[in-house]
Amino acid sequence: MILIPIRCPHCQNANICRNGRTSTGKQRYICKNPECPYKTFTLEVHPYYGSRKEVKEKITAMAVNGSGIRDTARTLKISPVTVLSELKKTKKNRKCESKVTSSA
Ligand SMILES: [Zn+2]
After folding, report:
1. How many A from CA of 39 to the centre of ligand 1?
2. DSSP at 91
3. What is the C-alpha separation between 88 and 73, in angstroms, rounded?
């Protein structure tokens, strides 16, 4: 079993305790540092690796470099469906951006 040390995102203190769950079911932690400004925090855990921002950026970068959907999926170890849906989203975003810049 690999134990990943959890640190407080506010003060980087590793002396933390579990403190129940939030209304959305996320694990809540309490920071034991008396000088910590926030005391409690939750960790953002994404259920799917493909939903992470870095992966989205990699998908876009690979598409720009001419990689196919299957190649991108294999390289990033995600499903081609994820690649495809991300590329569709990116195209939508670009349309919005160009509209904004042309009207400004
Ligand atoms: Zn803290």
Report:
1. 5
2. H
3. 15
